[in-house]
Amino acid sequence: MNFLDKMLEIAEQEVGCKEIRDTNKSKSGCVEALEKEFYGRVKSDPYCAIFVSVILARTCKAFKVPMPPIKTARAYNILKTARKLSGHFSVHNSPKRGDIFYMPPKHSGSSDAGSGHVGFVNKVLEGRKIETIEANTSFPDRKANGIPKKVRSWNGKFKFIRLDSLAQKKKLFIKPTSALVYTTAGAVAIGSAYAVYKLKKKK
Fold first, then answer.
1. 184 in the same domain as 140
2. Do residues 7 and 98 make contact, with C-beta atoms less than 8 angstroms apart?
3. DSSP string of 114-153?
4. pLDDT one-digit tens code per residue, 56-111
5. Does residue 47 register a pLDDT over 60?
6. How many CB atoms lie under 10 A from the CB of residue 24?
7. What percent of the chain has pLDDT over 70?
8. Domain count, the chain
9. What is the pLDDT of residue 51?
10. 79 DSSP assignment
11. Widest CA span in the chain
12. For residue 47, what are the domain limits?
């Protein structure tokens, strides 16, 4: 499993989390858990960028790789940092699975104010549409806010942040064996052990 597959798997585990009410000031335990993981305490902040940062941090921990310096609670700062860290990220005008999408404020021609919205691209669909996993947004039925999967149409104002330095990392899994294997060199793999031990003959 590569980094992007694991990242989206971890993100999908949070899908379905809903706020208690349609406001950032009254949240469910699953949203508060994200804030505690990010801040060390609960805060009444928008949490789309917190969600992205926490999922990245969890995936980096699973792969035992350093977290890129992109941890932030502000959506635009993710895009701003990605543009500065060209060795880690690249910014594109069209999506790929595993990108972080950045959507600018609806009623502003500029995103310099630090606002906007971010989430993960789970699938690229036909007709300039993407399936996303994102937080601090309404569910498709618009009855609650939280962490849903959504289908969004994207346009030229969207930006897509690619995790270049992490995308190709793979986690290796060694399949255990329950067999006893002897070799001419006197080695044996025992049970589900992953190491090969040399047997020394007693003199």
1. no
2. yes
3. S--EEEEEEEEETTTEEEEEESSEE-TTSS-EES-EEEEE
4. 999 999 999 998 888 888 899 999 999 998 888 999 999 999 999 999 887 444 44
5. yes
6. 15
7. 74
8. 2
9. 93
10. H
11. 84
12. 3-167
* AA identity, residue 142: R
Q: Supply the mean pLDDT for the chain.
A: 78
Half-sphere exposure of 113 (CA within 13 A, CB side): 10
Q: Looking at the structure, do residues 53 and 143 belong to the same domain, yes or no?
A: yes
- pLDDT bucket at 199, cuts 50 / 70 / 90: very low
CA distance 115 to 180: 60
21 contacts: CB under 8 Å, gap ≥ 6: none
Q: List the CATH number of the domain containing 159.
A: 3.90.1720.10
Residue 98 gets the label, from left (phi > 0), alpha (psi -120 to 50) or beta, of: left
134-173 pLDDT, tens digit per residue, is 999 988 877 788 899 999 999 999 999 999 888 777 764 4
Q: What is the pTM of this model?
A: 0.77
Q: Does residue 123 share a domain with residue 199?
A: no
Q: What is the DSSP track for 7-51? A: HHHHHHTTTT-B-SSSSTTS--HHHHHHHHHHHSS---S--HHHH
Looking at the structure, tell me whether residues 19 and 70 fall in a common domain.
yes
Residue 52: both structure tokens together: 């992205």
* C-alpha separations of 139 from 63, 67, 112, 146 in Å: 31, 29, 27, 7
Supply the pLDDT for residue 175.
43
Q: Does residue 132 contact residue 121 with C-beta atoms inside 8 Å?
A: yes
